Amino acid sequence: MAWTKYQLFLAGLMLTTGSINTLSAKWADMFTAKGCHDDPTHLFSHPFLQAVFMFLGELSCLAVFYILLHHDRRSPEPRVNPGQSFNPLLFFPPAMCDMTATSIMYVALNMTSASSFQMLRGAVIIFTGLLSVAFLGRRLAPSQWFGMLTTILGLVIVGLADFFSGHRDDTHKLSDIITGDLLIILAQIIVSVQMVLEEKFVYKHDVHPLRAVGTEGLFGFVVLSLLLIPMYFIYVGNFSDNPRHVLEDALDAFCQIGHQPLIILALLGNTVSIAFFNFAGISVTKEISATTRMVLDSLRTLVIWVVSLALGWEQFHGLQVLGFLVLLLGAALYNGLHRPLLARIPCCAEMVTTEEENSPEERERLLGDGRVQAADES
To answer: How far apart are CA 375 and CA 188, in angstroms?
Structure first.
């Protein structure tokens, strides 16, 4: 069945905004500008402030939800389901996971390339699968276990590509690249905890996805904005690249923005893109399918890699191509993209039917339910 123009628009919007989200965050990291008090020119290294802007984008989804709801109620046939009433504090634990994971990932993005950053985020299916078995009592199909093992192999290949590139990379030290890669994987563990918490406590309340994302964005924005105050005084030494070597120097960030206004363009690109990415992702799931959304999410990794190469932000490494393909295969197996192909083979059709019966909800509820993980996101 051919896609309509609206479906093509949604798919293009999701792919474009998802790619811009990571590229704009990396672009901000590459700016140099003077800070406050005649500080020398230095890189814009403010991951926690970037996370605040990202949560601002998520928060805007809440405004979009109420605008859509208001418009829908005025139509003759309302179509938007506002969902059940719920306690917003249900979203506080997953929002804190989102805040922690997103902050860690933005720290890691300062240390590694945008393409490796996006590829390594594929590790989330490993930890989500394991935690869903341990805490939700799910039974994973054999193909999902094989997909997780394939993903581990892909992560190893991407890690090796970063290791070899670190020996001839002028922008990142080898130790920084390895640390960044490990931090990204650590963040995926936290993201998987977030997804399991949402599955266990949130989904049963039938909350509209835009409202869910916006509520988590509200908590993340408020809490992280308040945390910027103590971060201004926490000395972390060489772990931080700002002149005062504190965990986050928001004042230095705003001074740099004043000296280099293009930085705010990159930050706003991150904010606006995450808002549209959430909307587009939810709409793709609704209008097309969750599987299509997964494919588009994988394709944005390719877009980010190609754009980074074109802009000269990183060098070409064959191992990265192999790693990307292996990660794509792992995600496809985990999400069941092989099933329509096997179903056409008579000898495999019964096996596919049995596998679907053993795990009927896994793909839709854990990875394709209409939510976007921001560190996703980011």
So the answer is: 9
